[in-house]
Write a structure and sequence with these properties.
The protein has 198 residues and is mainly α. It has ten helices and no strands.
């Protein structure tokens, strides 16, 4: 009879995800994965497959978590328009700038591997489509609350997602938090006008 696993799969995936996030796929070695997971090669590969399969599992775990956080953040704001503004300002919420310098694991991975790995590219496409649908639902909610009249929810959702990803990418270049915050607020003012006081 096989021995039960004596490790927390989610904990291992998170540790491995952080390694790939910080170093990238190519620069992460098997030794790195063994070190951060605390598992030997045999246990790691028996549980998750080879490096690529482990990476894809970690990436899926990351995007599942991201969509969970996005759903929660968009749903919890009392006013949908404020939730959409928060979406643009979220990348610069960390005053240390560490989060923006790290960027988005999915975007980083797509830049590194998208041309060479169709599975990564397909996963990115599906993920961004899901994000767009979640944001579009929030745009529709804002319209129900009397904001953003006349906007096409899908088109605006794509614009907001592109703006958010642009802010994250600019953060990776080392742009200071104050400039990124000002940029996020400028984008919010242009994409999400507030006429409630008119």
């Amino acid at each position: 009879m096989a021995r039960p696993r004596s490790f927390d799969e989610k904990q291992v995936l998170n540790a491995v995800r952080d390694q790939f996030w910080d170093a990238g796929y190519a620069a992460t070695s098997l030794e790195d994965l063994m070190r951060v997971s605390g598992l030997g090669k045999g246990s790691l590969y028996a549980a998750f497959g080879d490096k690529r399969q482990l990476f894809l599992r970690a990436l899926r775990s990351y995007t599942d978590d991201s969509h969970g956080h996005l759903r929660k953040a968009l749903a919890e704001a009392p006013r949908a328009l404020d939730a959409l503004r928060m979406l643009l300002e979220a990348p610069v919420d960390d005053p240390t700038g560490a989060g923006t310098r790290r960027g988005c694991l999915l975007a980083n991975s797509t830049c590194e591997l998208g041309n060479a790995d169709p599975e990564v590219l397909a996963h990115a496409h599906r993920t961004y489509e899901t994000s767009t649908a979640l944001i579009a639902d929030c745009v529709a909610r804002a319209q129900g609350e009397g904001d953003l009249a006349g906007a096409d929810p899908i088109a605006l959702a794509r614009a907001l997602l592109a703006a958010q990803q642009g802010i994250l990418f600019m953060g990776r270049t080392g742009l200071d938090t104050a400039t990124l915050t000002a940029t996020a607020r400028s984008l919010a003012a242009q994409l999400l006008p507030d006429h409630s006081g008119d």
